[in-house]
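Hi there,

I know you've been waiting on this one. I reran it after we fixed the sequence typo, so this is the corrected version. Both the input and the resulting structure follow.
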Amino acid sequence: MTKDMHEEEVSMLRTEIEMLMGEREGLLRTVGAAAVFVAHLDSSVLPEETYASADVLAHALNALPEETLRDALEKIRPEVDPASGESAD
């Protein structure tokens, strides 16, 4: 493998990693918002046709590793908790 080919592969991998990290940020924000939403949800006022979707969402959130859920909540804390002292994006 030539040096140029190696550098090109490294550059492609760097670009792919940056793209994946961006996607992860978006997914963490989505998961964090969903977790806060579910935590504040009053199931007694949910329309019956939403029960299945709410159940799927709750199970998906519960299946996440604790560290991932913690990271997700940290991503959205400034936006949902004004007392956190951080500014919202």
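Quick highlight: The chain has a mean pLDDT of 90.

Best,
R. S.
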